[in-house]
Design goal:
Layout: E1 7-12, E2 15-21, E3 26-27, E4 32-33, H1 34-50, E5 56-62, E6 65-71, E7 80-84, H2 91-107, E8 113-114, E9 119-120, E10 123-124
Parallel strand pairs: 2-10
Antiparallel strand pairs: 1-2, 3-4, 5-6, 6-7, 8-9
């Protein structure tokens, strides 16, 4: 169950929606607990949202590791880190889930999407 997991929230229309539910207990690539990672990534999401730079998301490589980033323009190179992916995760699949999550919230068709390790409203990490 994902009910008691930390979640990165998206605020819109006066409501809060979980965008990423941090389902793992520990994230080896960042040496963080789920709560610590959630708090850090949620802060990044909020800063980017306030600056209006969550309109376009992409994947890239930073410090040799696959990451999900926000960009100001479509097809821009990855420069504003959102979070690092774990070894073995498919960057394009993770980006697709995150985009679907955000789109479903904006369209009002919000629902959980879960796989073996994560849940999204669109995404789980």
């Amino acid at each position: 169950s994902f009910e008691r997991r930390p979640a990165t929230m998206f605020h819109t229309s006066g409501e809060n929606f979980p965008v990423i539910i941090w389902a793992h207990n520990y994230y080896h690539e960042s040496w963080e607990t789920a709560l610590a990672r959630c708090q850090r990534v949620s802060g990044i999401f909020e800063r980017h949202r306030e600056r209006g730079i969550l309109n376009y998301l992409t994947t890239g490589i930073m410090n040799g590791e696959p990451v999900v980033c926000a960009t100001i323009q479509e097809a821009e190179l990855c420069s504003r880190l959102l979070y690092q992916l774990e070894p073995g995760e498919n960057p394009q699949e993770e980006l697709k889930k995150l985009n679907e999550s955000l789109r479903s919230i904006e369209e009002g068709s919000y629902s959980d999407v879960c796989d073996d390790s994560n849940c999204y409203r669109g995404t789980t990490r």
